[in-house]
Each structure stands twice: as C-alpha cells, then as structure tokens.
Amino acid sequence: MMNESPLWHGRHAAALLELGIAIVLAVGAGYLAISMPSFVHEGGIQEAQDFIRLTPVFFPRVSFALTSVISVILLFRLLRAAPGLHVLGFSFRASEYAGVLAMSALVVGYAAVLPFLGYGLATMLAVAATTCFLGMRSWLPLLAFSVVTPVVTRFIFERVLAISLPLCRYEPIAEIEQAVMRFLAGILIPG
Amino acid sequence: MFEAFLEGLSLLLRIDTYVYIALGLTVGMFVGAMPGLTTTLAVAVLLPISFTLEPMVGIPFLIGITKGGIFGGSISAILVGIPGTGASIATTFDGPALTRQGKGRKALEMALYSSVTGDLISDVITLLLIGPIALLTLLIGPPEIFAIILFSLVLISSVSSESGIKGGIAAFLGLGLGFIGTDATTGATRLTFGFEALTGGIPLIPLIIGVFAIPEILAAVESRAARFIDEHVDLSKVGERLRWHELRGSIRTILRSTLIGTGIGVVPGVGQVVAAFVGYSAAKRASRHPETFGKGELDGIAGPEAANNAVNGPTLVPLLTLGIPGDNITAILLGAFVAHGMRPGPQIFQEQGPLMYALLVSFIIANVMFLVLALFLIKPFAQAMQMKKAYLLPLILALAFVGALSTGDTSDIGIMVVIGLCAYVMRKAGFDLAPLVIAFVLAEPIEYTLSQSLLYAHGSPFHYFFWGRPIASFFMVAALIWIAWLTARAAIRRHLAQR
Fold this sequence. Notes:
Helices cover 71% and strands 0% of the residues of chain A. Chain A contains 6 helices and no strands.
C-alpha cells in the first residue's frame, strides 16, 4: 500500500530521472570523449599545436571523459541505493506535469515562429497563449496585455536601449510594427 | 593604487548611474518578493540591458538588482512565512511569528536595517582589501591561477549541489560546453556538429537565460495556483515601527553576522543561504535568551539578514582579482564585464583601476539609496506579492526572448530553449546548475592557463606543479584533500546508515 503513495511515486520518478540522466551523460559524454578527434574540423594553426604540445582535442576529451566517469559512478550509486528499481513497475504520471509539458511546447513554438513572424507578432501570440493557459479568461485584459507587452518591450529595447529585434517577414506587418515605433518615439523621445 | 581610487571618484559624478541603480534595486526587490522567482532570474533576463549601457552604469544596475533581490526575499518570508529567495529561508524562523504578534513592520524594518548595514560594511571591507589582494595576484602566474580555478571548481561543485557527484558532473559538463567552438590557441573549430551558429562557441547570454530563466518559468507552472502567494496579506495589522532601542539591542548581532557573511562571501560557492543559517545560529548561540528564537525574536531577523547581504561585496574579490565567479550572480557579472571588453583577473586593477574603484564605491552608495528606496517600497511590494502568474510569467518569457535576441542572432533563441529545457530536467533530478555555468565561463581561462603551465613544465608537469610552484601545489593538494574528505565522509555515512 505504501508503495502507491504520491510520495513513493515522486521519489521513484526522481530516482528514474536521475538514472536516465546518468545513463545519457555516461554514454553521450563517453562517446564524445572517444570520438573527439572526429569532431575537430580541419584547419587551425598546426605550429600552435606543436608549440603548446596540446591538440584542440585534449581539453574537451578530458572534460567529457571525466563527465562520463562521474556519471558512471552516479549510475552505480543509484542502482545500489535502489535495488530492484527496474522491476518496480514505475509509471510516470503525466497529469502532474501536463502544465509543464504544455508550457514547454509553448516556449518551443514561440522560438520556432519568432524568426518568421518577428518579435512583435510572435510575442503577441505567445503572451496571449501563456496568459490564457495560466487562467486568464477575460478577453479584454487578455487582448490588452498581449498587445501592450510586445509594443512596450520593443519600444524600450529598440528605441531606448538600441537592441534591435527581428521584424515580421511579411512586409505589411513589419511596416505596421515600424510605424507604431515611429509614432511612440515621436511622442516619447523628444528631438 | 590610491591615485586610481581618487581618479575613480570622478567617474561617480554622473546621474545615470544612480538612476539605473535605483531601477535595479526596485526590480530586484520586486522579483525577490515573489517566492517563485529568483534574483538570478532577474539578473539573467536583464543582463542584455547592461550591455547597451556604459560599464559605470550597466554593472551597478545589475548589482542593484542583486542587493534589492536579497532583501525582497525577506518581505514574503516575514509576512507570510514563504521565503522569496533561498537566502531568506532562515528569516522564516522568526519573521512570521513576529507578524502574528503584530510586529511585522518591526521585523521588516529590522531586516532592512540589518541588510543595509551588513552590505555596507562588507562593501567597505571589500573596497579596502581588494587593492592589496589585486597586487598580490600580480605575483602569481598561470600555474597558480589554474590551481586556484581548479580548487574553486571543486569547492563550488561540492557545496552547491546536494551531492558532490552531481556538482562534479555539472562542472565537467559546463567545461565541455565551454570548449565548443573555435579553440583560442590553435584556431581550430571543434564540436560544432555542422552548426554555423556554434563556430564562436555557445554564446553566454542564451546559456545564462536558458539555465536560469526557462526552468523557473516551467517550475512556476508546476503548481496550478493562480498566484505565487495565495494567503491574504493584511498590511493594516503589521503594527508599529521599529524603535531605536530595539535596533540598538541587535547591533552586536548585526556586526557579528556581517563578519560571518564577509568571511563566507570570499569563499567561492558557499553563498548567501549558508551565510544566513550561520548568522542565525550564531545569533541564537550568543543570545541571553535563546529560547525565544523561533517564537518571534528580532535578533532572529537581524542575524540572517545581515549575514546574507554581507556576502555581496566579498564575492567580488575572487571575481575581480582572479576572474573566478563564486556563484550564479558573479558568473553573470563576469559575462557583463566580458561584454564590456574587460576580463576580470590579476591585470584588471592595473588596466582599469579607476573604473574598478568607482564601481566598488557605487556599490556602497547603492546601499544608502537602497535604505531610502526600500522604506517607500516595502508596502507596495508586499501587496504586489499577490500578483497573478498570468501577468508575470508571460512578461518574463518575453524578456527572456529579448535577452537571447540581444546578441543579434535569431539562432540563439534555439540555443536558449534547448539549454533551458535540459536545465529544467536536470534541476528536477537534483542537479544544481551553478557549477555548470561557472565552469562554462572558466573553460577558456582553464585551457589557457594549463596550456601555458604545461609549456613551462618542459614535459615534467607533476614535478613542475608540485615542487616548482609551491602556491599552485598548495591549492592542488587542498583540492585533492577536499575530494578525499568528501569521499571518506560519504563512505562513513553510508556505513553508519547500513548498521
């Protein structure tokens, strides 16, 4: 009965997550350490390598090899600490992390559309989706917040701090974005 | 040294420095007051703003966020017993009890005065000591710097994670990531996997924002609560102001904790959380009535608050003199210095002495500004704690993306997102990613100093390090002893647990 408690599930999920990460790092870093020479592109100054007697392979190989070795130690510790872990029939309860998965998808989607839609439109959609996802259902504040956030952040970062942000690839929308910025700059930035 | 200090004072005569310090303090306090958000998140997301400003404006802005954030964390710790940041956990022992007794305002003001005093005194100590320490670091060479970096990484990895093994994995992984891109010594590119965007290495800003902002956004949606704090904060019942005799009664505690925090701040990796706990227990041990601790004791606020803020100044000592960041915030600050064309290390006080002193003095002035600002802002920020996540998180997300885009390369947002998602998973598995970020920024100095050292060693590195360079051998032996001690301690604990 105890084994079905949420605490048991939580601890077990964490243990399996640790185990998974340890395996991925042990194998991945080990592979990188062994195959390191094939990950160094041709080029570079051979004389410099001869002079310092270390190739560009040396440091990454050492750090990945040590990552792999320590991950193997972690793996053994985890397996020793939880005997029978592999036969306990763990089931990941996705419902607990449904919100995180949805938010992760939203972040990935935002990153995917931003180069095409530009900062303004992509942020407007991302803010609207996030705000709605977090429980805001009244459409007026949702719309206002979604429009104001990209406009204000774009104005501050582009016009005040000189950090340029990508425009929409569809020119009519890009022109609207620029017109809004020019309008705000005309009001708020004297001269 | 003194000439550089005097010259630096003239750099302080500009209004924009103070405007941005005030802005940083305000933002920091606000973020610190939100229990789901950390000061590191605020510094990471707003880091790109500092790049567009001159160093004399941008770096004090980031420091302002840090100072404000640590105190901000104590607002929710005192009023509702939920620490806004890790540094204010010890404040929850007595803060809520004082609030229940109708002494919330006294507790908040005690936290403020202790924080400002601790920070101010430690900043002055830092200012006085950093010049001579910087001169000493000029006497050491690449082998010593390599050994000190190695020792610091071992310390940071072992104390920042719940398990030293996980800290070690994070550190070596960070080093591996730091080696991606063009090798500074030979010019060869490595580990780019055919991605043009990786030729220059993983950019620091997307990495920092990915590690510190994305996991916090995801962690905030784990709980379905609409707000970070659901409890109602009734500010009409916080009682009267702190009296002078009450503050005077805690002065010894404040000074003791300040010294504790200053000492802890110099050691890489230990940080504010440990300082706050040590400050609290020292106050309890020294008290004539230790039984009142945990039941609403003003010394129980003064002890941790002075200690955790006193860490701020001294963490800059290893950063500025050796280029070694001791925690997340100083790792981000290192990025800010590098972006401004400065590489903290033994040479920086020779090359940029006046600017360094001006920055340190501005941090002292920031404390005075903080005292004035916080007195006005405590109340509105106590109310803002109940702000809905639906407004805060989208804003942070938008700012995180702006931060990644500030490099001018849209592919950096992909790097940020990938790193952020991996960082969230690693955090869930109990990995502290501070060693990863610190090792990442130290990868280049490690490669450079070890390459130089091996060149000097003429094929006999062990003899050279352990016999030819006593300071380097001291730090390397210390690192080995520390690792041996941690391994033995873990084995003893396992043995005792099995019995």
